[in-house]
């Protein structure tokens, strides 16, 4: 399993960014996927996940609902996170994570496979 994130950068408050995650080495469409972030001095936080059951339902942390959108392109083995109305508190390293199908979960500890992360800074 390999996950490679890209698309991070610096943006002003209120701006937008789209993160991408290139997946390989596994059947992408059959895995649960999660975008997880970690700010300095804080624990990892799952922000947006796709669960393979329930017709691939998506889940969001309350902190990003209405601002972030997770999506995937199975033909390209790509996972995306569209982030709008960014706030300084969104500043963090963002990771793409994957696991075999299980139950709906945003919890980082439930995911086995991780990318190297991409930094997002809002200031």
Would you spell out the secondary-structure blueprint of this structure?
Elements lengths: L1 E5 L2 E3 L5 E8 L7 E7 L6 E7 L1 H4 E4 L7 E6 L4 E6 L8 E8 L13 E2 L3 E5 L1
Parallel strand pairs: 2-11
Antiparallel strand pairs: 1-3, 3-8, 4-5, 4-9, 5-6, 7-8, 9-10, 9-11
What report would you give on this structure?
Helix content is 3%, strand content 50%. The protein starts with a strand and ends with a strand. The strands form two sheets. Strands 2, 4, 5, 6, 9, 10 and 11 form a seven-stranded mixed β-sheet that branches. A four-stranded antiparallel β-sheet has the order 1-3-8-7, with no helix packed on it. By secondary structure, it is mainly beta.
> How far apart lie the N and C ends?
34 Å
Low-confidence stretches: none
Largest sheet: 7 strands, mixed
**Net shape:** globular
What percent of residues are in strands?
over 45%
Rg (C-alpha, Å): 13 Å
SSE succession: EEEEEHEEEEEE
Helix content: under 10%
The number of helical elements comes to 1
Question: Based on helices, strands and strand pairing, what is the structural class?
Answer: mainly beta
Mean pLDDT reading: 94
Q: Would you report the number of β strands?
A: 11
Summarize the structure.
It is built from 1 helix and 11 strands. It is mainly beta.
Which structural traits does this protein have?
123 residues; 4-stranded antiparallel β-sheet; globular; 11 strands; 3% helix; mainly beta
